[in-house]
Amino acid sequence: MPHPDEGDSSDKPEDDVKTWLLSSGVRAAKGLVPFRTRRIQSGRWKRPETSPDLPLRYDVRPGEGESRLRCLEAPGLEVSIFRSFAYTEVEARKLGEQVILLDGAGQFAPTLDHERRLYNLDHHQGCLRAFTLATCEQALILVLKGLELDRGDWKVFANEPDLDTIFAIWILLNHRRLRELSQEARDVLIPLLRLEGAIDANGFELAEFCGLPKEIFDEAKEELDRLHQRELELKRTGRWGTTDLAAYTQEMLGEIDRLVYEESDFSNFARIEEEYGHVEIGPDRLAVVCRDSSGIYEVEKRLKSRWGKRLGIIALETAPSVYTLRRTASFAGIDLAQAYARLNLEDPAVDGRPPEKRWGGSDEIGGSPRPGGTGLPPESIGRAIERAFRPREALSGLKTLGRSLALTIFPAAAALVGGALFHAISGRPQTPDQLLMRFALAAAFALFTSAVLVRQESWSRGWIFGFRRPSGRDWLWLLLPALASSSSLTPFSEGVRRAIPGFGPSSFALLAVALLMGAVTAEVWFRGLVHGRLVLRFPIMRVSGPWFVSVPALVSSLLFSGLGALMAWMGLLHQVWPTLPGPHPLVCAALAFVLGLVLAVIRERSLSLWPGFLVQLLGGAAALLVNF
Fold first, then answer.
1. Do 487 and 609 lie in a common domain?
2. Rg of the chain over CA atoms, in angstroms?
3. What is the pLDDT of residues 577-599, one digit of tens each?
4. Which terminus in the chain has less CB density within 10 A, N or C?
């Protein structure tokens, strides 16, 4: 196996490894400490959860296609075990950074890529078996040489949990305790690893040359045979192919724990009732979402024992849907206000009833909306906190703006298709009824397209796009200017007055449909689709919060005004209302911008599209009544 450290050897990391290994070998050679097998009945398999003296530290969680295993004391490592794992080097590099492949999961030569943090621990393809350590010993050397498994999240892949692979997994998951093992524990572990490594790499016929005295060799061989018994039994009875590999590995890790550890080794171990997950919130900082009945400060102490200095924020569920938010790193540049703002944006329970029903608190500690708690599941809380602290790059903002502009094109094209379809079926409109029908059909096409795009963007979070009940009250002050803008913009103010003499009984019903379709389409299209897409990237106003013009409000208003100018320039308004003098595009754009900006502000401060929809509907109805 290549040497994992190619830097300056002045610190002599090799000496640390030699001291660690040789101290155990010397004691074993002298026979000072026999194997502690008296707690294990020979030939009897004991599941980890039945152990009366050691905590169950290994969790198995189902995944997509494979189960995932982790140790509560090394939550940054996730072990995926699946029989079909067989990555080429090219495929392995696509798995991302901080990846470890074990014993056949990587179908290429043993690899130590420190730049990408890709490690393939193997002794099959592309190596000389006679001169290469087995996987478990490679893993031991990596850990003892200082591989930073506490830095960031690591993914470990295995395909066949033979004893060599299981020992390697145990070493990686127990990397924190490995350097602190008592001398007695080392005297147990090292002979097992040395003998298993020799057997797995070169076969049992050469195992006696691993350097262990006969007494230690025999004891180690007896323990390995006992550990191997379960695998042999499953294979002999034909059940190995259907065995849950992660659960099997969990059991085996528990057995190794019993060999190596004593109950006193876990005197300070405290389990969190449930750790939902963690997310990165900055360089070497993370947020943990968990559930526990203990107080936040007790949970903080437990989590710090696992995550150390990486822990930045705790989101603790103290009751169903009730969370406490705690900042644990006071001088790390972490501002809980960012988390509050993002959670308030995405949480459907933040409805402004009452206004204080929202995420909030101090810089150090806060919590979920009161009363009632949050409407977000734990994984959504984690993702929201992650997005709150995600670096805002200029290029990312430009991409979001570009995507929003592109999304605007599709409803516009759909409206043109709707108008062309009506023209193809019924010919050129000649009566007010036909004109209104064509307008309603074009609006329906644009509405349908906008709704489909909203669904594609994230229908499961429809409240982000304004599909929720209105909140707050301060936006009510904007209703009067919004109604005035809507009435002045609508072509009904002049066109209806001239066109009403030609209306038949059905025209008024069609006029109501056209009003309804136009109002709904404009809101879903601009204040829903465009504004909602930008909300995911740019800050906006909140209920009863400070007043300012946000980027989403400005962009959606500009696009809305652009549509008004385009319709005037193309004569579309004149086609719908032939009696209306052709308005100047700049006039239309200015009026549409004012209306769009007012409606966008209402949408942000009410969190809802419905006030804007009613404003447009009432504005059109007011223009109709005045001219009627």
1. yes
2. 34
3. 444 445 567 777 888 898 889 99
4. C
